[in-house]
Amino acid sequence: MEDDMRLVKLCVALMFGLGLAACAAPETATRNTPLDTQMLKPAAVSLDVQAVRVSVPQSLKVSEANRYYPGGDIVWREDAPGDRHAQVKQILETAFMRGIDSLPKGAVPVVLDVELSRFHALSEKARYTIGGVHAIQFTYVLRDATTGAALTAPRFVKADFRALGGQAAIDAERQGITQKVRITEHLAKVIHQELGAESGYRAQALGLMGAINQL
User: Fold this and answer.
1) Backbone angles phi, psi at 5, to 5 degrees
2) SS3 readout for the chain
3) If 106 and its partner were Cys, which of 24, 46, 144, 163 is the partner (CB 3.0–4.6 Å)?
């Protein structure tokens, strides 16, 4: 109860602090801006992604707290209790391979190196009440498949998107649409756009709830 009251107070403070700034922000504020030092734009090159290597650093803190906002770097509940780092790594690998398989096969052999920095699915409490945001963020580099040399500068991707809650979450689960299903499909689309679209992936504007997930 005390943790929930703190969350309410935090929301109120953020509302006053942010005001209407999020609504008035220009479109460019919701984009992942390519680094000026990037050596190539993935979409401009005919890529043959031969492997995906996902790193989930052990330094990322796992939270098992059943609160609206559990904190930590990794919040994941749909698999049985166990190694959460390994579980979310498997989700990312599956999603990225699916997204890459949907791209035309090119001529330049590369390896996709990914390092996760945040993976927030919903706690049980949030899942079956207010919902929230799946906050999933990572940095990737494309490397030459033979030499291992970096072909791009590290690129940060904020792949956050809205999570279902309450009755909508229950209805989705009855159809087999779990958090894992939605997250996997979303990340597959994200990496498809990053490697295949001229502008890359554009981060979604998620308002106050999105701001809270950056704390």
Assistant:
1) -65, -40
2) CHHHHHHHHHHHHHHHHHCCHHHHCCHHHHCCCCCCCCCCCHHHCCEEEEEEEEECCCCCCECCCCCCCCCCCEECCCCCCCCHHHHHHHHHHHHHHHHHHCCCCCCEEEEEEEEEEEEECCCHHHHCCCCEEEEEEEEEEEEECCCCCECCCCEEEECCEEECCHHHHHHHHHCCCCHHHHHHHHHHHHHHHHHHCCCCCCCCCCHHHHHHCCC
3) 46
Tens of pLDDT along 60-97? 999 999 999 899 999 999 999 999 999 999 999 999 99
Contact of 127 with 169, CB cutoff 8 Å: yes
Residue 141 in tokens: 């580099």
Whose CA is closest to 33, among 189, 212, 194, 215? 194
- Do residues 62 and 72 make contact, with C-beta atoms less than 8 angstroms apart? yes
- pTM metric for this prediction: 0.78
Return the axis-axis angle of helices 179-196 and 84-101, rounded to nearest 10°: 50
C-alpha closest to that of 207 among 133, 138, 136 = 133
Hey, which residues does 110 pair with through a beta bridge?
A: 49, 144
Looking at residues 140-165, what average pLDDT do you find? 96
